[in-house]
Amino acid sequence: MKFQVIEYCHQTAALEKRAITVDHLVETARVLDLSQEALFLAVRLLDLFLSKTKEIVKLEDLRVLASSSLLMAAKYIQAPPVHPPTFAMIARNVFTMQDIRETETKILNVMEFELGITNAYSFHREYTWVLKMNKETRDLSRYVLETSQLSMEFTTKRGSLVAAASILLALRMNENTEDWPPVLETYTGYKLEDVEPVARSLKEFMERAPELHPNQRAIFRKYTHGKRSAVAETFFSKP
């Protein structure tokens, strides 16, 4: 598939620092009050660039690549868009406006100027709307889905499948149901046997995430807020 991320083993430095980079994107998006869709698109652009480019991205170039991905996503998704000087200011002289412009050009060339790509959040938004989920269960599934971005295991899967699995896990944890709703089976095209293994992997990853990524806490902090039902604080108390 044209916009399917493959694991970029050749990008050693980027892979090693990927979770830190995603954590930085989450925090920057929060500071700038960017939408969830802009954040997920930015991570998708970052991963697609790293998996498709023949250029080996150096560690010192990773931050400007991530910030440029977020800026492009914000300009594509949001109105009014965030302006480049804001990103340069946040960077605190780590990179310049010229660095951003050059990196944006590289991303556009690798993406063949196509930015209207689907991501896990766009599927998740549709699925939760169809299901008419209550707010707490929806927030729980969003927390799972956003945390999954820290792992390449889920990044290389179809976004629609990971979105569906995050919803199944949230339904089981918050509403004590083992069923896969018929409306979602019809709408997503996935049966329970398709979604369940991924939901199980998501639960295992969520349980191990504090150990695997002890310093990447931006997503956890984000979901301790009351407006997101404080689901991060109650996640481990659920069955």
UniProtKB/TrEMBL annotation:
GO molecular function: cyclin-dependent protein serine/threonine kinase regulator activity
Keyword field contains Magnesium: no
Domain Cyclin-like stretches: 23-109, 122-204
Pfam family, one: Cyclin_N
Record SUPFAM superfamilies: Cyclin-like (SSF47954)
Gene Ontology BP term (one): cell division
Keywords: Cell cycle, Cell division, Cyclin
Domain Cyclin C-terminal: 118-237
The keyword Cell cycle is assigned to this record: yes
Family: Belongs to the cyclin family.
Protein name from the UniProt record: G2/mitotic-specific cyclin-B3
Species assigned in the record: Steinernema glaseri
Lineage, broadest ranks: Eukaryota, Metazoa, Ecdysozoa, Nematoda, Chromadorea
